Amino acid sequence: MTKGKIIERAKTLRPVENFKQCGDMRFWVDGGKIHTQTYIWNLKRLKPTGYLRELGRIITYHKCASPMLFKPSVDECVYQCPYPEATAFRISPYCDYNKELNRHETETIYYTGDIPEEIRNREIEW
Length: 126
Fold this sequence. Notes:
Elements: H1 3-10, E1 14-19, E2 25-29, E3 45-48, E4 53-63, H2 74-79, E5 88-91, E6 96-98, E7 103-112, H3 117-120
Parallel strand pairs: 1-5
Antiparallel strand pairs: 1-2, 2-3, 4-7, 5-7, 6-7
């Protein structure tokens, strides 16, 4: 998948996260620079998601600068998404290091549902 196609898909497939301090409520979160930043280290809540239907869970693989640092990026989750109708994803904060692949692997959950206009219109930065 090309950079352009990943950016186009990232407009309709956005990260979400559950926040324990809000009663485990799920929010749309800022994906940051989708290729060069890990979005899970500094989660910025944007807006509650409302109802999202889970499509499935898969193991996703993420580049590894160090076996000790898990740094997933949005583009990796977008690229590996097997569900054309997915509109949201949430990544497990727990991962394993796959020495043979030199990659971290984790479970990613994909959802479908409505993306609010203000989330859909947020700029995608590579």
